[in-house]
UniProtKB/TrEMBL annotation:
Superkingdom of origin organism: Bacteria
TPR repeat positions: 172-205
Cited InterPro entries: TPR-like_helical_dom_sf, TPR_rpt
Lineage of the organism: Bacteria, Pseudomonadati, Pseudomonadota, Alphaproteobacteria, Rhodobacterales
Keywords: TPR repeat
Gene3D superfamilies, per the entry: Tetratricopeptide repeat domain (1.25.40.10)
Protein's UniProt name: Flp pilus assembly protein TadD
Record-linked SUPFAM superfamilies: TPR-like
Length: 284
């Protein structure tokens, strides 16, 4: 019997529609799976880099509850807790990450960072010692420098700071830390140079500006440095210089700097006003 060819196009059309319906349903089911939605949109990466820290903590905590075996969610929660200044809470999650077979050397570096933020210097040093020497990154050497600093191993600290600064295009933060290290050793001239270099990379880094004023004041120079600053920053730096002068027995210099700080600040500068009143009360 010869098949009726008139039915073949109809049959193909029906089978084609069935295949299309099947594919569409699979795509819809996949799209409705929250874990796949996260993967497809890179939401985790967005939460780690762009979201507010507490918002990221909430997101990753919820994601981890839904998928407790996902190391990337636990890693994200630990990182977000550190960003939210909750390093102590992050430690248990970093330990869980490191116990996973999929843990990375970078996880150990991030764990060491959280330990340092929590003041656990000895444990941080132990974790850094476990990282293979072939992993030469800015983050690793920055932490190595800080640990060496805490141990007062100055030559090692200088070497690590220098290496870290050379491994990033944005070395302002590590140069500022290096300068502060120099100040604690009493090398104020060396510290001044490093703070100036830090500011040259990041003119908005106020911490480096404040440290620079302190390094100069320690050398008896209370003039503000020639760096870019806002009016409010100028008032705050004058206040820093004033307090340094007073601590070093230069009372009249400190008094003049406090008065200038009060006049410079666009609003009421309560800290400077209180310092000046205390100074005047002592003179009575």
């Amino acid at each position: 019997m010869v098949p009726d060819l008139r039915f073949i196009p109809v049959l193909c059309a029906v089978l084609g529609l069935a295949a299309c319906d099947s594919t569409t349903n699979a795509d819809v089911d996949r799209a409705l799976d929250p874990m796949n939605v996260i993967d497809d949109t890179n939401l985790s990466d967005i939460m780690l880099t762009a979201a507010a820290p507490e918002e990221a903590v909430t997101y990753f905590r919820g994601a981890l509850e839904n998928a407790p075996d996902r190391i990337d969610f636990r890693r994200g929660l630990a990182s977000s807790l550190v960003r939210a200044n909750r390093a102590a809470e992050s430690l248990v999650h970093w330990r869980a990450v490191l116990e996973d077979d999929a843990a990375l050397d970078q996880d150990r570096i991030d764990y060491a960072d959280a330990l340092i933020r929590n003041g656990d210097w000895d444990e941080a040093e132990e974790q850094l010692d476990l990282i293979p020497p072939t992993m030469e990154t800015y983050e690793r050497y920055r932490l190595e420098a800080m640990v060496a600093d805490s141990n007062q191993e100055w030559e090692r600290a200088d070497s690590f700071y220098e290496t870290a600064a050379g491994l990033t295009t944005r070395p302002a933060s590590v140069l500022n830390n290096w300068g502060y290290s120099m100040m604690t050793r009493g090398d104020f001239a060396g510290a001044e140079e490093l703070f100036m270099e830090a500011i040259s990379y990041d003119p908005d880094l106020f911490t480096a500006k404040n440290n620079l004023v302190m390094a100069r004041a320690a050398q008896g120079n209370y003039n503000l440095p020639l760096v870019r600053m806002t009016q409010i920053e100028r008032a705050q730096l004058l206040h820093t210089a004033a307090l340094a002068a007073i601590r070093q027995g230069q009372t009249e210099t400190g008094r003049a700097l406090l008065a200038e700080a009060i006049d410079t600040h666009p609003q009421h500068f309560d800290a400077a006003v209180r310092a000046l009143r205390a100074l005047d009360a002592e003179a009575i």
